[in-house]
Design brief:
The complex is a heterodimer.
Chain A: E1 12-18, H1 24-37, E2 42-46, H2 51-62, H3 68-92, E3 96-100, H4 103-112, H5 117-123, E4 132-137, H6 140-150, H7 169-187, E5 194-197, H8 202-216
Parallel strand pairs in A: 1-3, 1-4, 2-3, 4-5
Chain B: E1 41-47, H1 53-66, E2 71-75, H2 83-92, H3 97-121, E3 125-129, H4 132-141, H5 146-152, E4 161-166, H6 169-180, H7 198-220, E5 222-226, H8 231-247
Parallel strand pairs in B: 1-3, 1-4, 2-3, 4-5
Helix pairs in contact in B: 1-8, 4-7
Classes of the chains: A alpha/beta, B alpha/beta.
Amino acid sequence: MKTFAQLGFPGRLIAVEGLDGSGKSTQIYLLKRWLEAEGSKVYFSEWNSSELVKSATSKGKKQELLTPTTFSLIHATDFADRYERHLVPLLRAGYLVLCDRYVFTAYARDIVRGCPPQWVRDIYSFAALPDLTFFFQADLEVSLNRILDGRPQLKYFEAGMDLRLSPDPYESFRIFQGRILEQYLAMSSEFNFLLMDANTSIEAQQNIVRSLVAGKLDLAAFARKKTPSA
Amino acid sequence: MATANIPKRPRNLRVIVPQKTARRFYGHGIPGVAVEKLAGRLIVVEGADGSGRSTQIRWLVEWLEGNGHSTVQVGLKRSSLVSEELDKAQEGNILSRTTLSLFYATDFADQLENIILPALRAGQMVLADRYIYTLMARDIVRGMDEVWLKNLYGMALVPDAVFYLNVAPEELVQRAFAKYSALDYWESGMDLGLARDLFDSFLKYQALMAQQFKRMQRTYDFHILNGHRSVEEINAELRKKTDAVLTGHLEQ
């Protein structure tokens, strides 16, 4: 598997990964704001957000119709739609594409749900690797508390209830997230994750994110050309 | 009713109890499924639109049930999970190939897990109006990677028999006009840009599909049936072969 840079794309893809509640969405949002202010061509894409697939996914989740296999496939469909319709064309056009979760989320979650690891990886083999992947690692308890404090009602699949880990949603969520974290850590070096200590302040993390991005990418190459005013 | 034409066999008082056969998935399969518990039979009928698939399946169901076997039918784009969304996506023709392929795979997986496997576990006869082969052939014709497709459909159960109704594209055209007075956009492969007009595109596309089925025949053990014969003749052959499936003696 190659990165977009290795494949000769003019654009670059930056992904953030981490458990729910690790603060990754906050960090990528702040990165986006900074890049926009710098005048870069930026596009942001979120896991499970393709309009077309959304109604099927939400129906499946609401009615608890999904099995590990269909859960995996419907997310792959969503990803493929965003990948082929938005990510690839924008990367061809020289954009900085920011992804809140990428294929690694599927690798981790689907495997914890019992899908064959190689089957999952091969399904996503049409996708190139990100040029930079930040992994936000918070103590499991910190992540859990962030989620559990803010949203006391856990959703069925979010809590991993389909895995029958525990009849108690909170206990199920803890076990499920713990297993996902193990999967993430196991692939961390294989995919060159940039490990971020998500226990520190938002500002301290954003400082590191910005300096890593500025150091590893030539940001001037992604500047929006000024159109001559009429 | 068309079924009145089926030559009636004497009512069998003794119902054949299918013998156990070895079962497997094509690849990784579905996690947590004990294949040895799948007592029923999975029979697939493949063929282009207009090849007579649905009529043959209808007749086969009549015959099977008359002989004491409980049946369940599945087909493409019939899942409760994504069938509506798939229809919508196709109307607009906005999905790219990998996406559409995965969407169909989701539809297939949903029926496999929620209908096919439970029915087989309950010892029923499952009749599939098309299976993964149509999905793979469509994608291969559109340039998708076959290795990728084989991995994807490694989740599928190997059927007990796959019958392919072979009908020449020229005859399919005639049947489509006789029935609908029109050719379907997708069945004509218009998205491929093979020809400017529907008629030429249909012939080319169906020939490409037939070519893929011929290529897959050996790998997937298809029984190719000449679809140019009468409904009765074809069904007689199907019944004979299905009978062999039930007694465990179907040979290629």
